[in-house]
Amino acid sequence: MESHPERYAELYKELAGLIGDAAVRKLWKAYGGVTITFPTRLYSRDFTRQFIGKNMSSMKPSEMAKELRLSERRVRQIMREIRLNDAGKSNCEGGKK
To answer: Which residue of 27, 55, 68, 95 lies most exposed, with the fewest beta carbons within 10 A?
Structure first.
């Protein structure tokens, strides 16, 4: 069947604009009739922690929050946890001989 996104129902038209007609047709064939809810959190907790740890000296908490779609408060909490964890590791390593 020929592709005509303008014939699609409204949601599928929006999706076609975002991801393309071919991808919409694949989604429709695989999930048509199924209700799908996308969680707000895209990234895993491990990746989030790694991203913040890697970028906390070069990015503002507000920039990381925007990138990860977290609150700035949550980014600051994770930064504090990382610092405490790093401090605990260096104290343990410093005491060993």
So the answer is: 95
